[in-house]
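Chapter summary example.
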Amino acid sequence: MLSISAISEPQDRPPVDLVVVVDVSGSMYAESKLGLVKGTLHFIVRQLRAEDTFSLISFETVVETCLPRLAMDEKGVARASDAIDALMANGCTNLSGGIDAGIEQLVGCQKPGRVGCVLLMTDGLPNEGVIDTHELVELLAAHRASASFVLHSFGFGADYNPTLLRALADTAHGMFYSIERSEEIPGVLGNCLGGLLSVAAQDVRLELRPCTSQAELVRVISSQRHAGGEGHRSEVEIGDLYCGEARDVLILLRARALDTDTDTETPDLAGTESSPDLTSTESSPDL
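The structure predicted for these 287 residues follows.
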């Protein structure tokens, strides 16, 4: 077992680039779902600093950039609040178009040293563009294969599609949340933003390789995406790590029997992380 841990205490946090993709289709009018979304967006804006940025994209039959990337200083917060209040429910649900636009907005403005994230807010009932759950997940996976980002999904009201929204969040290394009442907004957003605003390391990748010819890497068992896993090397895609968070990776090694008269090497495993703010430990380094 190999454990990788982030620093436990947040330091000066990096600036955050948030792209929020909002469903404003006709189905969001029911049960005051759009009102819940607006309350959620206003809460988010109040948590951001002047060095953070906020982008707002809405989708129904058509997709619209309501607010391009904007710093959340005093003027930026005022413009964001106006854009949020102007949202209106109408039309069909082009979820795939909204996802495409949100990711393009984020990837187009990503810079080193900044934390980027897409927040998808919908009832998960697409009826325009790509509507099949499996195809929507494949669409997001294709974006994830060419760019590093995290997407958190939020289901609003009582009739959202949890299967779709959870699958989308899992594919993009995010979390799925649900909001049915306005009283839930602080708790849900506190959980989401509390983690997002305490990111310790981004796009972490763990390279595993036996450091002796006496051992062979047989298999890597992890819920994280990984490549290889047989022979001499494997790379595990950890993603973003939050302060105090730990991830475990189970590794199966095959060791050649030692000839005590000639062999002096002890089978061992080496792990290399891509971030300086991480530590790793092996629970069974020797075989």
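To summarize the output: Residues 279-287 have pLDDT under 50 and may be disordered.
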